[in-house]
Specification:
The chain is of the alpha/beta class. The protein is 48% helix and 12% strand. The protein has helices at 15-31, 36-43, 47-55, 62-71, 77-89, 108-117, 138-146, 154-173, 196-212, 261-276, 281-296; strands spanning 122-127, 179-185, 215-220, 231-236, 245-251, 254-258.
């Protein structure tokens, strides 16, 4: 079987190329007021094939892309060549999340999320309940995922724990790390899940990432209205504009990828309000240090 290298996965992944192609196809279809069913019938494909291409679950071959672009009215040679090259780039080497052992255990949105994460130049992450997966220590990840063992199979639990470790390794291997802004609801600093020292070690790990300079963290106070109970992350795959932005949102064991303009604008607006309404970096770091010391020292942890 083809070798899969976690370090290699952090460089030159096909996420941007795949996204470029699928959005071009969707935009061209919409511009001609065609449904996915009409495209499927015209191309003599299954409807599910069109849906999976447009959602980014699968790539499209160059041989399929050329006639599809012609049918959709995309005939400018330079644009066609650009999209053909993108389709070619989207089929680069398989990544760790493509391993057979993960088959059927990760959601389509999750696999897209991983491919965006390893290419992201910057991130905006809101944590309403728990720390972001790529920052979770092994102990915290096991405790966090095991909480959903009544909704996930044992294999799914094991896979999700392992993916957190692989994501940490992938980020550690990146020569240039993303600029990650992490916004923690204040309750996240209090959630021990019955293991105070485990939370203390998790907070220490977060402080290490902050000291490395690629993570900036703020704590959103209890006095600020909460937008919901789920975590969500906005990745920028290049410039920090809507064209290069994509959102991953999860709630319990449900998740989805959102990259439409309205959805992105709504979450970015929420982000700005919460970020600027939170404790600044200095005060937030002091709070994290206080909670870390209390939990590692088995003392009485602060209540806020």
């Amino acid at each position: 079987m083809e070798a899969l290298d976690v370090m290699a996965a952090s460089e030159n992944t096909p996420a941007v190329a795949r996204r470029t192609v699928r959005l071009a196809i969707k935009d061209a279809r919409t511009a001609k007021s065609l449904t996915q069913t009409q495209v499927a019938e015209a191309m003599e494909w299954s409807l599910s094939k069109v849906m999976r291409i447009e959602s980014g679950e699968v790539t499209i071959s160059q041989n399929d892309l050329r006639p599809l672009l012609a049918y959709l009215g995309v005939r400018d040679k330079s644009r066609v060549d650009e999209l053909i090259q993108a389709a070619k780039a989207s089929k680069q080497r398989r990544q760790w999340w493509d391993q057979p052992k993960f088959a059927g255990l990760l959601t389509p949105a999750m696999k897209q999320w991983f491919s965006y994460e390893v290419e992201a130049t910057s991130m905006r992450i809101f944590c309403a309940v728990y720390f972001p997966g790529f920052l979770q220590t092994p102990d915290f990840a096991r405790s966090m995922v095991a909480f959903f063992n009544d909704e996930l199979t044992e294999a799914e639990v094991a896979a999700r724990i392992e993916t957190r470790a692989l994501r940490r390794q992938g980020l550690a291997a990146r020569k240039v790390k993303p600029n990650a802004q992490v916004l923690l609801d204040q309750s996240v600093l209090l959630r021990t899940m019955g293991q105070p020292e485990m939370l203390g070690r998790q907070l220490s790990d977060l402080l290490s990432a902050i000291e490395e300079g690629w993570v900036t963290a703020r704590v959103m106070p209890f006095t600020h209205p909460s937008p919901g109970i789920g975590n969500w992350e906005i990745f920028y795959l290049g410039a920090e504009d809507l064209e290069h932005a994509v959102l991953y949102r999860e709630n319990s064991t449900k998740d989805e990828i959102i990259d439409d303009e309205a959805g992105l604008l709504r979450h970015l607006s929420q982000w700005d309000k919460m970020w600027h309404g939170s404790f600044d970096e200095v005060a937030s770091k002091r709070m994290i240090e206080t909670h870390m010391t209390a939990h590692l020292g088995n003392g009485n942890a602060p209540q806020g």
